[in-house]
Fold:
Amino acid sequence: MKKELLFKMLTTPSVSGYELAFQKMLINEMKDVDDLVLKHHSLNVVHVVNPNSSVKVMLLAHIDEIGLMIERVLDNGICKLTNVGAVRPEMYIGQHVNVVKYDEKGNYTYIPGVIGYTPNYVDGHVKVEDLNLDLGTSSKEESLKLVSVGDAVTHKDCYQELANDALASRALDDKISAFIGCEVLRKVKERSTNGVYLVTTVGEETTGRGAVFSTVDVTPTLAVALDVGSSSDVAYRNNFTREVSLGKGGMLTHNSASNKLLVKRLEKVANEKNIPVQYVVEVSKTYTDFDQVFKNNGGIPSTLISVPLRYMHSSVEVCSLKDAEYITDLLVEFICSLTENDTFNPFLEE
Structure:
């Protein structure tokens, strides 16, 4: 696996609503793989291999990350913040952060800052409005020379490879899946003429708009949403009802909207190729791009595959690179096995 690309993804900021720089970076990184690139004003990008094939497999992975945004600047120079997505405010206290300054072309620079603790830190009832972004300034005028209302704020860039092929970083949700999608494109292009359309979607953490627009330029045969899902092998939250561990395979989802023939076909490939998988049940909403894409184009045969993840929505999300490899292998083998005569309509299969 080309880990260098993954590390570049993890250190390119893309707070929801500010994804342009990331998309431009990935277009450049994939220029020797893509046969076609489709760009939408929403900031969605579709990376395509084998566009002339009648088999069109759509993969979706969101590249936006949670973060903070400057909402106002106090007279003493402290910046007050609001959340972008489902952040955990306590995770930011005592942390080094970067304010991300963009120009109209999506180029960015970092302004360093820290999130200082407040009296509410002591009793543990921290809200986003309690957070103080300290730039080291002493006045509102001084701060506004460095930053502006509406600027995005992220944890400082930092990834760390751990034991047993584990990786820790912010924004593994969902850049690890975008990385898997890129690896699938590379490998399918080497082995098959089947078409693959990787949509690096935007806005999943806030509005879900990327999945809504994902099929504007494409009418896929089927769709597989790629995201992360909570691992239960470490008790970092209450009321886990699943049994999912790092390093034991991707998570296949059983729910009411997943196409049953598609899920069975993936299971069959996994069994035949000895690729480990795990199972989760999400009866209704999955809170991923899957929730929208299966409704597009009058209904697309769709399902969700997730990467097990510890410490979701923190600066130290932890996944296993083994699971990324397992999911990549499963998708490549599945896509290469498809023919134009395959149907995922149970009525036509009778």
